[in-house]
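hey can u run this one w/ pyridoxal-5'-phosphate bound, need the structure tokens asap thx
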Amino acid sequence: MAGFSDRALAIEPTGVRKMFDLAGDEAIHLGLGEPDFQPPAVAIEAFHQAMVDGHNKYTTTAGLPPLRERIASLWSHLEPDLGIENVCMTMSGTNALLNISLAMLNSGDNILLPNPCFPLYGPHATIAGAEPRFYACAFEHEFVPQVSELEELVDENTKAILYNFPSNPTGATITEEQRDELLEFARRHDLWVITDEVYDRIIYDQPHVSFLGAGYDGVVMIQSFSKTFAMTGWRMGYILSANSAIMEQVTKLQYYITACSTDAMQYGVLAAVEQAHDYPSEMRDAFRRRRDLICARLDAMPGVSCHVPEGAFYVFPKVDMPGWTSVDIALEILKEGVVCSPGSAFGADGEGHLRFAYTIDVKLIDQAMDIVEKVLTRLHQAEPPGQPAQF
Ligand SMILES: Cc1ncc(COP(=O)(O)O)c(C=O)c1O
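ok here u go:
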């Protein structure tokens, strides 16, 4: 046979999925990032009704005008002039991210990406033919990038920088002051800012700080309803920007990627946005209780320290266990029946960490933490493995 493209061969399955695939039926899952809630009932009803009413067709590429209008108005407190032309519906945040990489990047370009990060960012740049170039979001700096390091990485081929707050996998958020510094960096180097704000509604103690409306017109936001309305399986997201040039390109590309988003589901999402906009607050309260429990439990374990996450539903503790990689440790925990993700699955700087998605109820979290504690206590006293585990 004739073989495969360099772009397909250059990318690998993610470590998060690998752990999931290795898990037995009885395992307690703290691996995948999806809320354990049902979407709002009004969304399910409106989705069903829309199908009954015959909304089973192609829509315009950018999506249903009433939904886009509603989305534009959700962000108009930050960008007052947004209209439907500033929103393009996509089939998930993942689709939005890939579209943006394809719209912005050429071979020979590079894009600055967080490390650790959502594992799709790097491969999306690779698929677009560009070089992913990683900046640190280090534990020592509360997982916030340092502009001095960004200055060392940027060069004349840098086209864009991606920021993700609240962050997957760290749960970190930023202050307005930090946001302004990060935007100023982009402005100095004339970069596109891709801001992934899919966790903007899952935030605990401070209001969300967006990159929108902060005075830089090179900002493009990617969004998803997966987390906001617990509808990961619906695959609904969007791209939003006040910059009409980028909207024109992404809307054109979206046609060649999926033609349009799903017809009936957009009615479901519209109902959720209109009638259940506060829905995430129920989830948020549950996540906050779980966060407090899991952080307290982890902090009391040998060699473990946490930053308490301010957003999303992940905790990314540092696990100081000389001689053991994060894959070794995650596999040992898995053998005892708990699925978590090795920090290295999120990039080289994730090594030395584990990621726990607290998307199960507190009783199960407590049970899982008993197991994790037992494993870490045992590993702490055991000889490290001669060879790091491969998986
Ligand atoms: C930071 C971040 N961005 C984007 C996505 C993509 O979400 P979806 O493709 O489900 O819309 C995820 C999913 O986990 C994520 O964590």
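The pocket of pyridoxal-5'-phosphate is lined by residues 33, 92-94, 118, 164, 168, 196, 198, 224, 226, 232, 237 (CB under 6 Å). anyway lmk if its weird
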